[in-house]
Amino acid sequence: MVQGSLRVWRPKDIIRDMNVLLEINLNYSQSCHAREFAMGLMTGTPEESFSKLPDYFHNLKKHNPGTVAYIQTDLEDCFEYCFFAIG
C-alpha cells in the first residue's frame, strides 16, 4: 500500500519480499513480529516517547506564552493522560 510517497509494508508484503529478495519463507506471525520490531527501531518505544513529554511540555510553555500543559501519572510514575491547550 502506498500513502503519498511513503510505502507501508503489510505482513503479506514482507512475506513476499523476504521470499523474493532473500529466499526466506516467513509465516504471517513472523512477518508481524518483524514489522513491529522494525517499527520500534524507527520510532522508539511508547515508554521512550512518554518519557519525553515533560521536556516537550516545558518547551511548549516556554515558547508559547499562555499555554497550559499537564501530565497525570499513577503512583508508579507511569503515564495515565495529559492535557494541553496552546495559548
Notes on the protein architecture:
- This protein has 87 residues and is α+β, with helices and mostly antiparallel strands.
- The chain has helices spanning 11-22, 28-43, 46-51, 53-63; strands spanning 2-3, 6-7, 68-73, 79-85.
- The strands form 2 sheets. It has a two-stranded antiparallel ribbon with strand order 1-2. Strands 3-4 form a two-stranded antiparallel sheet.
- Helix 1 (11-22) packs across helix 2.
- The longest helix has 16 residues, at 28-43.
- The two termini are 39 Å apart.
- The mean pLDDT is 88.
Percent helix: 40-55%
Mean pLDDT equals: 88
> Can you summarize the main beta sheet?
2 strands, antiparallel
Q: Work out the strand percent.
A: 15-25%
Task: For the largest sheet, list the strands in their spatial order.
Answer: 1-2
Treating each run of at least 4 consecutive H or I residues as one helix, how many helices? 4
Shape: elongated
Helix-strand makeup class: alpha+beta
How many DSSP-defined strands? 4
**Element string (H = helix, E = strand):** EEHHHHEE
Query: For the CA atoms, what is the radius of gyration?
Result: 20 Å
N-to-C CA distance:
39 Å
Low-confidence stretches: none
Assembly annotation: single chain
